[in-house]
Amino acid sequence: MACHSACRVFYRRLVSSAAEAKMPPSELRRLRSAVFSREQARQRALITRTEKIEVTMEGPGLQGTLLVMNKGVSTPYSCARHLTEWHVNSSALALVDGELWPLHHPLTHSCSLSLLTFKESDPTQVNKAFWRSCAALLGQVLENAFKEEFTIELLRSPELPVISGAFCCDLVLDPKLDDWTPSEETLRSLTRDAQQLIHQNLPWEPLEVSPTVALEAFAHSRCKQEEVEERAAESPNGTVTLYRCGDHILLSGGPLVARTGLCSQYEVTAVHNLDKGEMGLHRRAQGLSLPLQLQAHHTIWRRLRKRAERLVEVSPPPAPEAAPPSPVAETPAQTPSSAPQQ
């Protein structure tokens, strides 16, 4: 374990040195996607023979449906394709033996499988994944929105409930843009960029990797290196999950929905200035969207949009409580009778 930690520290120093070199955003995307592809191919090459697993489908009209799939290759999305077009188009997430499972993540054992849509009786988990996915899409749009000579650093985005009124993506722009304030036309342009990605119906491909692989992918981002370390420490097995959407690679602390096409009525509503940090001026981009299966009347949408323009305040995580001091028996010498009472 000590050797493993030392290697991690050494590798982090190497990638920190790489972070000093400025690279165009398009080149960074290409490098990160190449690391993702190489690791994905390595993991797939570990499957040297086809093993069959039995997947018992659960859900309305599916009781008793048994699918025979390929271990480590077939995904919940593969299972949906054996059912109906409705299941393919409507499924956002899956439950595998009761555990939340991304739709494009390979199945590893015989299991029971439920395909989740936005019309579940309890849509809490699907809504969380949707909001998280909308924020990921916003980050992808922002990373592509500026000229090549400007750097952009996506920060760890806050996990927010849907009732917050807007999904958020925190970022730091090039210092040359500190005085930049987005106009209404700029926000509309960002919205159009997002809608193009939605129209492409791109999958969010998950890949569970070791921290070393994730650090290599984000070798030119100190911020993402720190996030890799944080998420690895939070993970029960010490791994992190990368997602790829087109050529955009991101970290996520929870599952994303299956594809960009599940987003609808998507708008970028505001970019607020926050405080200055070590890297520069922090900003919070915000947006609003509804799932494809749910639509709002234009009057309701206008009210929701107005709310989504206001800055979403994010409370810092509560600090761990300090352990109470160990009781110490006081002697008359330590506490003289003349000492004042506390």
Provide structural commentary.
There is one protein chain. This protein is of the alpha+beta class and 342 residues long. The protein is 36% helix and 23% strand. The chain contains nine helices and twelve strands. The protein has a five-stranded mixed sheet. Helix 1 (2-19) runs parallel beside helix 7 (211-217). It is globular and about 60 Å long. The N and C termini lie far apart (48 Å). The model is unreliable at 16-20 and 319-342 (pLDDT under 50). One of its GO terms (molecular function) is nucleotide binding. Residues 315-327 have a biased composition (Pro residues). Belongs to the mitochondrion-specific ribosomal protein mL39 family. It comes from Albula goreensis. Residues 312-342 are annotated as: Disordered.
In short:
This protein is of the alpha+beta class. Helices cover 36% and strands 23% of the residues. The protein has nine helices and twelve strands.
Helix-strand layout with pairing:
Layout: H1 2-19, H2 25-45, E1 52-58, E2 66-70, H3 76-81, H4 85-90, E3 93-96, E4 99-101, E5 111-116, H5 124-145, E6 152-154, E7 167-173, H6 184-200, E8 205-209, H7 211-217, H8 222-234, E9 240-245, E10 248-252, E11 263-277, E12 280-291, H9 298-309
Parallel strand pairs: 1-5
Antiparallel strand pairs: 1-2, 3-4, 3-5, 6-7, 7-12, 8-9, 9-10, 11-12
